[in-house]
Design a protein that fits this description.
Blueprint (H helix, E strand, L loop, with lengths): L2 H11 L2 H28 L15 H26 L1 H19 L4 H31 L5 H52 L7
Length: 203
Amino acid sequence: MNPKTFLRRLDQLATTRNTWLAFAPFAAVGSWLMLADARLQRLAPGLPKLDFRIHGYTAADVERLLSAYGPSGRAEYGQQTVVDTLFPVLVAAFGLLFFARTFRRWGWSGLGNMLILGCVLFLVVDLAENACIFAMLKHYPHPADGLIAAGSVLTQVKLPVLLSIYFFVVLNACVLSGKLLTSWWQALGTIRSMQSAGNDPRL
């Protein structure tokens, strides 16, 4: 499927209903991961998960973190990573529909297409990062240096892309809220004008 056909098909799928249907599991899994991360933070205070290290990590960082987790914490991290494998799929599904529904329909196709590409990039990079983390946990305490280096690079690419997606989702939500409030205010003004003229539309 060429890019034009893909975007045309995406525009057709990007209905309000489908966008909300994609948002629901994205929000649910994202919320679960945030709560689950709090459990790991209690095992290793001040040491963020590898997934959250925007500047990457070294072999020493990996050893310090996984050692602090202990066997139960490493098992928990592995379970979280299984669920986290769903997250990039859900982010991409929601992001593709949301940006097609907003930016592309507002006539800002260039920015919309860039963000759609960002969603696809995030999907690929985050899945690859999760595979690296799985392998580090499997081969602990002696994960290969090349594996750690690859995971570190993937994390440094993933996080800025994800933060950009979040930023534009919030920005769009603010724009949509502003449009909705403006419409309500205009409708209220029309009703008041009609009432002042003695033409109450509710009569």
